[in-house]
# Entry
Amino acid sequence: MAVRPPSNDDDKPDAVDFGIAAMDAHLEGADLTFPATADEIVQALGDPEVDYDPSGNAVALSTVLEHVDRDRFDSRQELLDVLHPEFESLRRSSGGVVSWLKSLFPG
# Structure
């Protein structure tokens, strides 16, 4: 997922990646082949902090992987599909729709 930040600051990117979009960005260019275990994924990516909401709240990849019920992923898409509900759960618990809407229309 991604959301556009306020348009009054030209120094920031046009969109803020979070959840699966942020995770996919970490996977791009990584020296990682599938199938891969959770440990191999964390090691290849360096256990990045992945933003899970548009406010920039983040969680370590290893923490998210501890909450899923599998340790091996046959493809990149399978990894993203399995992680998606975890990122969504974190996003909802961080303030939900109201916080998300406020991030779209600041001040």
